Structure formats: structure tokens, C-alpha cells
Amino acid sequence: MQRALHLAATPDVPHHPNPRVGCVLLDDDGRTVGEGHHRGAGTPHAEVAALADAGEAARGATAVVTLEPCNHTGRTGPCAQALIEAGVRRVVVAQRDPNPVAAGGVATLEAAGIEVEAGLRAAEARALNASWTFAHERGRPYVTWKFAATLDGRSAAADGTSRWVSSRPARLDTHRLRAACDTMLVGTNTVAVDDPRLTVRDEQDQPLATQPLRVVMGERDLPADSAILDDAAPSLHLRTRDPLVALQTLRRDHDRHHVFLEGGPTLAAAFLRAGLVDEVVTYVAPMLLGTGRNAVGDLGITTIADARHLYLRDATVLGSGAEANVRLTMTPEET
Amino acid sequence: MQRALHLAATPDVPHHPNPRVGCVLLDDDGRTVGEGHHRGAGTPHAEVAALADAGEAARGATAVVTLEPCNHTGRTGPCAQALIEAGVRRVVVAQRDPNPVAAGGVATLEAAGIEVEAGLRAAEARALNASWTFAHERGRPYVTWKFAATLDGRSAAADGTSRWVSSRPARLDTHRLRAACDTMLVGTNTVAVDDPRLTVRDEQDQPLATQPLRVVMGERDLPADSAILDDAAPSLHLRTRDPLVALQTLRRDHDRHHVFLEGGPTLAAAFLRAGLVDEVVTYVAPMLLGTGRNAVGDLGITTIADARHLYLRDATVLGSGAEANVRLTMTPEET
Lengths: 335, 335
Known about the structure:
The structure is a homodimer.
Chain A: H1 2-8, E1 22-26, E2 32-37, H2 46-54, E3 62-67, H3 79-85, E4 90-95, H4 105-111, E5 115-118, H5 122-128, H6 130-138, E6 142-150, E7 154-156, H7 168-179, E8 183-187, H8 188-194, E9 213-217, E10 235-238, H9 243-254, E11 258-261, H10 265-273, E12 279-285, E13 287-288, E14 293-294, E15 308-309, E16 311-318, E17 325-331
Parallel strand pairs in A: 3-4, 4-5, 6-11, 6-12, 8-9, 8-11, 9-10
Antiparallel strand pairs in A: 1-2, 1-3, 7-14, 12-17, 16-17
Helix pairs in contact in A: 3-4
């Protein structure tokens, strides 16, 4: 399983939309006769790749796979069936498939008389595809809310200017985090005021080849010349103000697993009030403004006992000298 | 000089009001014949202690001392005269005395025919008594402004409650920083609203033996039952709203070198606007309030280009789990 987990985590395999999976085929003496991993949507699943690698040696082998073999036909056929047809004798699975459409592989294998063991190193396998697992289990994408603020909690000066509250190293770091998500989300007001591109760009400000879906939520129309409507990446306007409706739509209709929320204080407050923020990333800039736009809007909290507490996961200084910013990563839950 | 600096830095010697000084007496072969360090106001100066240690061996010796020997009679006699009378042949000095009242020791020694070398490892000697040196050179105490804030820059909730924005490890750390200063400073409004004790307390909330002077500035009278007027530590009411007047008074009339500013947003803003904050210590609590009291008042900044930038010196996580706070230490200048 160690090797299967390692294969699944092969660098440069996209995290979205499909889960990362690794598979190793072993003979009776525990020797590897084939291995494979999934390389992204539309390419063979890990089990099929491993079976192809093993050829005839797959007959009678044990398949060790990080995720329950799929039971449905998508762009590729069902892996459970492929394992049966190849004559595999035993299957060891780490994570059970949280996707109800694809699940059932273990039952299919067992019905075919194959011995199945599930749950070995399941936590590590879940962590490989954390937001994918979360989205399937919870019916909505995992939400990372990112904001940059001064020491006194301002995201822009009194006249609305905000370039730049965060330093260049912090902004580059933000693009790294954006790239790990499959969805950028802002409100119509941010589009109207800031007109952001919301693309993932490299150090030379050039867009990367793979871009998250750019989503604007809110009932107002978008200006036709909004940067978000350019052809640098796909975009979507969800005509709702309800965070849960937006998230469920993104999961159900657009197969989204990880939303990077970069909206203004009002949108952020709406998500916080709804309990729909799963991770908070704050870039603290060592500067003071005194007045200006607050980083977060009204949360309905009037007394200190009701403050929204977060658990600090990481504190990292990015950049140095005049460019030093502090990135704080937090979650609402302790575990 | 290494040894003299080490002696000066002997633990448990108070940093206030007198500078920490070390002195080593060497014979012609470089052997130590006596050494001494200052142990606090009213006790012998380092040179006198070293001369006493050496006895007759001081005659013809070289005195290595971290600070220019004093030239005035305070609670103890002038050290320059003591060195001359002991028959010292040569004096090596690190830092020149920035105190105009006590300075002139080098000139007095030279006038008596003693060879003097000054400036060796002066930077290290200055660092031994950084705020004392600052106060003498600038005519006002060094000012450390400390505040605790939520991620969104609030120092209290909408109803004024603020116990506790900072966690217990952060509050204990604040007492450690208070103990390194000689003056606590707040405004009359903080006394009226929060009624703080402003004492330095240990982990059992018991006051330490040595307390900074508690100072309130502002024109309003203090409530007679204010905690700050109790007998746990001396206190002082400066009837001015002008930060520079307050600081100059503290230096001139009360021999203060290091002010720990813990006032509210208005007082902090007044010091910032006057350019009279030399160090900022912020305890960032990973919590959100949405609304509430701002950590800092209006600074007259309306656009991002005019933001007050600080240089990050240190970022440290204090405590863990639900008690994790992040301490950021910053200065307005890069050097």
C-alpha cells in the first residue's frame, strides 16, 4: 500500500476533477508484477494501468489500490469488472469510494468471489484527495477563504485603494494556493469594484495552462467588459446570494471540490455566518491604515464571548525586509 | 572587552534606571587583576567594584570598561577620578557616555595623563543599554506600543468586552515585556473604561517586586478608586494630551527610558501620527469579530500609498491549540 500511495501522489498529476489513485499488483510471493496510477480525467484508471503493466501475470495476483475500484462506466469502463476479468484473486483497498455514483466496487468484487480487504491506511488515502473526499461526503466543495489584511484588519484604504496590501511574495503564494483549487469564487460587488482576473498566474504574470473555474455569485448583472469574462479561463455566473445554494450547485452541476473564496467582506461574512468556511488563510501585512475597508463584514457578533475562534494550523513568514508578510492558516475545527 | 561585556550582562541586574556596565583590570601581561560590574542604582559603579577587587594591583593596570567612566558625583563618586587615584595607566572604553550630565570622563582621564582608547565594540555596549542610550541621545524614552487584535483588527467586541482577545500565553508574554520597561503608559479614557492595574504580574497573578511607573496621560481627572492609584506600584498623572510633551517630561523629570504604551486606539493613533512609536508588538488572535472596537484610531491615511509600513523583526507562535496567538514584533525603520 505504501507503494500504491506513493504512485497515487506522483507529481504533476492534476488533483481535479478526478481523485488521484495508485495500484500495485503482487504475485503470491509478494513480488510486484504490475503497477499504475491515474494521470487525470480521460486517461486509464490506476487499476487498468496496472493490469496493462502486468499482462498475463495479473491472473491470480493481489491488487493493492488506494481507492475502492469504481463500479460505473464514465469515460472509462468500470475497474471492478476489469479486475474480475483479469483473474485477480484478492483486492486490498485503502479508502472506500465516497462517490455514490461510482461506489459499489467492493460488493461487485465480492459477488464475483474475490477476497476483499478494505480500510488499510485509509486516512492517508483520504488525505491524497482531501477536498474530493470532502465534496462527495458533504455534497458541497471544501471552502478556503483567503484574505489579506493590515495589522488593524483593513483590506483597503478609505478611498478603496488596496494595491498592494499584501507583498509580492504573499501574492505569488496566493497563486500557488489558487492552483491547488478547482474554483475561484467572488461576489458581483467585487467584480464591479475590483474587476479581478481571478486566473492563476506565474511569476511573470502569465496564466498557467490549467485554470480553476471562475465563479461570480450574486443577482446583479456583470459588466460585459469584466476581466472575469475574458477567454483566459472558463467563468460562470451563479444568480444566487445564498452560499449553500451556490456551493451545492457547484458540486452537483459542475463537479467542483475545492472553492477558493476571495470575495469582499460581505460575501466572506455570509459564508462565515452560514458556517461554510472550512479553512481560513490570512496574509497579515505589517502595516497600519487606521481607517478603510474592513477585511470582514458584520458577523452578528456583539460580545467577545461569541467571537468566532479559529485553530491556528501554520504561521509562516513570506518574503523579507519591506516585503515580509505573515501567512496564517486556520480551521474552524480543532481536528 | 568580551569579559567586561559579559560582566555587564550579569543576570538579575536591573536595566533601569542605571546602565549596565562591566569593568576588567589587566596587568602589563594581560592578566586579570580585578573585575566588577554595576549591580543597580545606589551600588558601586563597575570601575569602583573592579578597583576594590584589584586592590594595590590596580596601580599601572589597564582598565577595560564597557561605558565611558562617569565624571560626576551622583549617589556615588566620579569613576574617572577613582581610576586616576588608583594609578591606572591606560583605559579602554567601548561606548561613550550619551548622558551629558555624566559625560567628560575620557577628557578628565586624558587631562590626568592617562592613555584612553574609546569605541572598541561600541555597538555591543550600546545594545546592553539600548533604551537608556536611546533616551539620553533623543531626549525621550524609547516607546514600545503593544496591542492585541483579532484577525479583523478588533481590540474589543461591539459591546466593549475584550476579555480575552489574547490568549493566556500571550498575556503572560505581555507581562514579560512589561517587566523589561520602566514605564507603563495609558490615556485617561482607558482608565475610565477598562480600569487596568498596569502592574507586572507572575503566572499566579502576583505582582513582581520591581514595578514600572504607571503613567496616565490626559486632561481628565482620574476616578479616585482607579486601580492604577492603588499601592501596588507608583503612579503618575500627566495632564497633557501631547505625546512628545509626555515623553519629554518622563525623561527629564522622572528619568524614564522605556515606555510600554498600552493605551486605546486614540492614544496609539496620537503617538503614531507624531512618529513617536519605536517598536510595535502585536498579538494576533486567530478569531473574528466582524464588528467592534478598532485596534488603532484614525491616522489621517486615506489612500494605500500612504499606509504606515513597518518592518517585521520577529513572528512567534505563543501557546498551542485554542490558545495559539501569534506575536509580531516590528519597527518603523529598517535598521
